[in-house]
Amino acid sequence: MILYLYGPDSYRRQEKLKWYLEKFKEKHSGLTIESFDLKNEDELIKLKEFSTAQSLFENSKFGILNNLNETDPKGLEDVFKISFDSKILTLAISVEKALPKDFKFLNNRDGIVAEEFKLPTVADFASFIKTEADRRKIKLSLDQSRILAQNYQNDTWGLMTELEKMRLGGSPESFEEINFFMLVTKLQRAGNAKQALPALERLLSENDPAMLFNFLASRASGNAKIKMADYDAAIKSGKLEYEEVLLDAILA
Q1: What confidence tens digit (pLDDT) does each residue in 46-57 have?
Q2: Which of 79, 95, 116, 156 is the most exposed place for a label (fewest CB within 10 A)?
Q3: Neighbouring C-alpha atoms within 13 Å toward the C-beta of 56
Q4: Which long-range contacts (CB under 8 A, 24 or more apart) does 191-195 make?
Q5: Which H or E run includes 230?
């Protein structure tokens, strides 16, 4: 069997993988679990050995495949065929984006369980916050739930971190609604587009793009300041708009 979990909500995707692991542990006393990072060529060899090896002491094997997009799909066809035909081998795939068409041999097959994990809608996120808070025996006021929803929309991992702080004794009264300067700090320190884009979206929904660009440019230094000057020239020559420049700066 193959478990195919995909989608940008990495927290719920990871939680579902944990759920499957617990179910397999409950069902199989002789369970062997291994993870394989397929961006390394040696790991594919280990995966093939894991898939074909037999032991008198194991009645189930569970392989977790990471970075599946970074390996040649043709090298996995035999491994997947073994999993489809086997009664003891289960392979779990967890990826942020749906696999490309090169993996078409996974489509329309018996023995594959696929589940997509989209980012929650605003309504779904409010319900998600309540469910996770209740699970941790945390009581949130409507105002606190609203602030959490605003601060962590599209960031389920950030929300879980905040709730865990509360579970361990953090005070919910200390929550603050994210303001302009907090969002700018999050934007500059995010480190990757997945975290920075929600902050940029929020800033653009509440502020003039030209003002935001000029504010960020005034805080830039070194190579970043040179880059902002290039952006400014492109804007003034009519080649780019402020929104395009801000998005490009985040994705660069």
Answers
A1: 999 998 887 766
A2: 116
A3: 0
A4: 193/250, 193/251, 194/8, 195/155
A5: helix 222-236
CB atoms within 10 A of CB 185: 12
Yes or no: say if 24 and 13 are a contact pair by the CB < 8 Å rule: no
Residues 57-108 pLDDT 10s: 667 899 999 888 778 888 888 888 888 888 889 999 998 888 888 787 676 6
Query: What are the sequence ranges of the domains in the chain?
Result: 2-116, 122-174, 180-251
The identity of residue 72, as a single letter, is D
- pTM more than 0.85: no
According to DSSP, the β-strands at 89-95 and 60-66 are parallel
Residue 75's contacts (CB-CB under 8 Å, 6 or more residues apart) are 44
d(CA 136, CA 59): 35
**What angle, rounded to 10 degrees, do the helices at 222-236 and 242-251 form?**
150
- How big is the CA angle at 120 (ends 109 and 244), to the nearest 5 degrees? 105
Classified by CATH at the fold level, domain 2-116 comes out as: Rossmann fold (3.40.50)
